[in-house]
């Protein structure tokens, strides 16, 4: 997800993620991660920090690192928890200088889309897309890196067969482009097939003469046999959307307070993505493709807050402008901007800055991806080779 410029906990105890003994031996040689601001570990800030970028200032990073790292959270992300759980170091951003990538790399970058910029420009949306590195661009970054981590194509294939690939999420920023241009929701739904095809097998876009390979398909061609493909979050529950898209009372969930038709958009995307994954599983029977669910846990954080140690309240950002609106979110005083403050204890909030999640939330999601029930199948289920 996230806003074009990413407008804009207490530490989740590692014991929460302690594996059963049977899973300890199921380690990966490396992890390669792709995506947007949900999993960006600092690619956006490697070459310098723009003045406008609030996410590169405290209180971002306050919980685990003690300083901002370029992660759009108070601490670790899902991919960080997964790396730690399988015995790997935190993945360095792929653009990092003087880093080694033999144990993996994180290609994700804030603002990333599934579709290339000309797709949006062709629909009159060039002004509402801020594409720092699309899915297609991240594939190229990955391919350019191979020479630095492998001595031969066969050595690369051997490494990739023993690695975990996390492919996304992608799609949040694609939908933000028409949403924040206030296009009709019916029009936004027409983006879904192109976004999902781009993630999966590839599309023939009108602005390109050649077919743009989908990320999953391309990674399988490179030798990947274990891939995690996440869906999108229920955007109707997030303060940024709740603040911008005011609706009639009947448009909100009675128990959740979320905007129902925005959550439907997310749900339809996820259903289409799961159908695409099913097609790819049939086409590549030797490859293990896992659907990873962001949607269900986020809904549960809202509806069953106490179960996860969160405060039961209206969807509300931990870090924002206190006293400004019921969602603690204000575009003119975002988290990291002057006038904004973080809550005393991010671990009891699921929403960090109104757009992204807290470390505590990501810890719960990572556990659900690793061991269930938030992945199909769970990552640390018996692996097949």
Please describe what this structure looks like.
- 51% of the residues are buried.
- It is built from 13 helices and 10 strands.
- The longest helix has 24 residues.
- It has a 6-stranded mixed sheet with strand order 2-1-3-6-7-10.
- The chain is globular, with a radius of gyration of 19 Å.
- The protein has 385 residues and is an alpha/beta fold.
- α8 runs parallel beside α11.
- The protein has one domain: Rossmann fold.
- It comes from Oryza punctata.
- It holds the Pfam family Lipase_GDSL.
- Keywords: Glycoprotein, Hydrolase, Signal.
- One of its GO terms (molecular function) is hydrolase activity, acting on ester bonds.
- This is Esterase.
Key structural traits:
385 residues; alpha/beta; Rossmann fold; six-stranded mixed β-sheet; two-stranded antiparallel ribbon; 13 helices; 10 strands; 32% helix; globular; disordered N terminus; glycoprotein; hydrolase activity, acting on ester bonds; Esterase; GDSL
In short:
With 385 residues, this protein is of the alpha/beta class. It is 32% helix and 9% strand.
- Which structural class matches the secondary elements? alpha/beta
Low-pLDDT stretches = 1-26, 202-213
Q: What is the CATH C-level name? A: Alpha Beta
Please write the string of helix (H) and strand (E) elements.
Answer: HEHEHHHEHHHEEHEHHEHEEHE
Task: Provide the residue-averaged pLDDT.
Answer: 88
Distance between the termini: 33 Å
Helix content: 25-40%
Computed CA radius of gyration, to the nearest angstrom: 19 Å
The gross shape turns out to be: globular
- The appropriate CATH architecture is 3-Layer(aba) Sandwich
> What's the CATH superfamily, by name?
SGNH hydrolase
How much strand? Answer: 5-15%
Q: Please give the count of helices.
A: 13
Largest sheet: number of strands, sense, barrel closure: 6 strands, mixed
Structural domains: how many: 1
Family: Belongs to the 'GDSL' lipolytic enzyme family.
Signal peptide: 1-25
InterPro entries: GDSL (IPR001087), SGNH_hydro_sf (IPR036514), SGNH_plant_lipase-like (IPR035669)
Keywords: Glycoprotein, Hydrolase, Signal
